[in-house]
UniProtKB/TrEMBL annotation:
This is MFS domain-containing protein. Residues 173-182 have a biased composition (Polar residues). Residues 1-131 form the Major facilitator superfamily (MFS) profile domain. It is found in: Membrane. GO terms for cellular component: apical plasma membrane. One of its GO terms (molecular function) is myo-inositol:proton symporter activity. The lineage of its organism: Eukaryota, Metazoa, Ecdysozoa, Nematoda, Chromadorea. Pfam families: Sugar_tr. The chain crosses the membrane at residues 40-64, 76-97, 109-127. It is a multi-pass membrane protein.
Length: 204
């Protein structure tokens, strides 16, 4: 691009692409001006960055927030996660220019690269897969082994008590039905015909 220093300034460069005499008000992109064939690489890298970021770290916090927290802590957890996310965005926005002056633009983006690598390693090691798991199992993933044993033991105890209560209820209902049948003179045992009754049925 050849841009004037000032709109009202008549000055032009003495040499180079923007040398004197180039005083048109229309500016155009010169693909062949730079003496390297990698001019387009920053644009390609930026497109790749935006694409992978949109599929990775950008939606990740919002998706995991809906799965990680138990119901009693979901509101507070999502609020804290959202606050942390936007505070980090604010820090990046406030420190970008300062970092570029202190460690150059290259150094600034290498710092961002290092933070991204640390985040990737942390997620790969410490964040479990929650796909297809109910919320009860997701809670167990974040508990210690002792807590898991305690929770599973309590669940088994409740299941045993519920099973025993169901058996007692079934036994009581069966006993009640038997007593009602006996009170009407009906025996629940199978009816076995005698020999005389069998003969009568064969020779009416």
């Amino acid at each position: 691009f050849c841009l004037p220093v000032d709109v009202n300034s008549p000055d032009n460069a003495a040499t180079g692409h923007c040398q004197a005499g180039f005083n048109e008000s229309v500016y155009s992109w010169e693909n062949e001006f730079c003496d390297t064939k990698f001019t387009i690489m920053p644009v390609i890298v930026m497109i790749l960055y935006m694409g992978f970021f949109s599929m990775g770290f950008a939606p990740l916090p919002w998706v995991l927030n809906a799965e990680f927290y138990p119901l009693w802590a979901r509101g507070t957890g999502c609020a804290l996660s959202t606050a942390a996310n936007w505070i980090a965005n604010l820090v990046v926005a406030l420190t970008f220019l300062t970092l570029t002056e202190a460690v150059t633009k290259y150094g600034t983006f290498f710092i961002y690269l290092g933070i991204t690598i640390v985040g990737f390693i942390f997620i790969f090691i410490f964040v479990p897969e929650t796909k297809g798991l109910p919320i009860e199992q997701v809670e167990l993933l974040f508990m210690t082994e002792a807590e898991q044993v305690k929770i599973i033991g309590e669940a088994n105890k409740r299941l045993t008590i519920a099973s025993q209560e169901a058996e007692r209820k079934e036994t009581a209902e069966s006993s009640t039905a038997t007593n009602q049948a006996k009170s009407h003179g009906v025996d629940n045992a199978s009816f076995v015909p005698t020999d005389d009754e069998t003969k009568l049925s064969e020779n009416p």
